[in-house]
Amino acid sequence: MEVHESLGKSARASLLWGGGFHFVRDIAQFGVMLVMVRLLTPEDYGSAALAQSIMGLIAVISFGTLVMHALQIRDPSAVDWQAHFTAAAVINTLLFGLTILVAYALSFTERYHSGALPLAGLATVFLIEIPGTLRHRMLETEHEWIRLRLLFIIGTLLGLGSGLIIAIFGGGVWALVVQPPLFGLPAAIDLFWHGRWRPTWSWSWGRYQATAQFGVTRMGSAAVLRGRQTIEQTVLAGVYDFAALGVFSRSIGLATLVAGRIGSLTISALYAVVTRTDHRSNQFRRIAGLVLRGVCWTTIPVAAFLAFSAEDAVALLYGRQWLAVAPLLPLAVAGVALAGITTTLSSLLLANNEVRLCLLIDVIAASVAIGLALWLIPLGVLVYLAALAGHGLMVLLITLTALIQTDGIARESLLPAFWPTFVASGCAAFTVGALRFMDLRSDLLTLRFVLEACVFGLVYLGMLRASFASALRELIQVAPGGSRIARGMRLA
Fold first, then answer.
1. Residue-level pLDDT at 147
2. What whole-number distance in Å separates Cα of residue 299 and Cα of residue 296?
């Protein structure tokens, strides 16, 4: 019982500090985005998107994938950080050189040469990742949430601030390139300065074998996912141009920023807590059910509102010069929201020690997605986005079935996770639609968007409180500040 209470306290602290970090980061990113989308061109975003896709594909075999094994170990004192650092120094230095060579080769191509220099700049991520990511994982395994999130905030602000300055002074695509390398710099400094950690360069196959086996499997999953993204970006740029790729990436980017990240952020905050529980246990299944419910209850309404208010959202956040994004946004947000929920399920499956099953699902999902990209992108971006939404639903159902079959979640957890949010979101959308039909809307864009968001949110919460009080109460009880929220909603 004492262990359960300790894990619950750690989970709430992780969510609280993780939520605080993401709130600060989102506000900062939002403010910087409002400036940068007015200073950078679609070609800049397209070049950066291609470089990031190639970089992501190479990064699947980096130290960042291997070190995730530290979170699988139920006892954090058993993690061999010295072996991790030695492996990282060798692997990431080689990847740095490989990325430079790929960028050099890319510079000789006629269509893709504009992505060469951005890719070379992003290569520095591999060097900074060696100490930076090591420090992040150290703090995560020890559940030192405050220090971890502060380093995240400092890195984010450092990257955003540098990017904004470069954009203001006409640096173009480099405003986007400079941000990823700077994110890990504060953690790298903290490892050697505050942590006073020093490498001994020790390593042995016997100590690292389990990590390598885990890493190879996860690399396979990451490779097919990154390969899919790279092919998607390359085909889009080849069939159309970098401007079209920029519009597509902005539609996916806005959908991800508002709705698609909820699942990944939630599970990233809780993963180190979930992996402290015994897999296939009742406690694991209960946690999985609550995590899925929380992610669905936040992702689905946000996605519904964004799709319902696509044109206003694009005009407000990107400016009217980006209105070409608006027709793509409803389908983009559908696919992204489904993918966000699937990410949560896949991470729970991984935490349940089903590493090979995760790889199998990832290979199937990526293979189908690559086929869709090659087949449907030439037929039109809207056709492709509609297919991605269907693909997202298919992968969600497969992953959910796998989690049930491996005793990672109880079947009775599914109805409370999906049905209440569908009903409440539908009622909220109907209410906003009725207000529009009666022409009760402001002509001021910002005021109109904010008021509709408030109406949508109030109706949504009201429906949950009125019709699904017991499920709402159970979820609120495990949330940070849950007792106060419950009293405020008269659920206590």
1. 92
2. 5
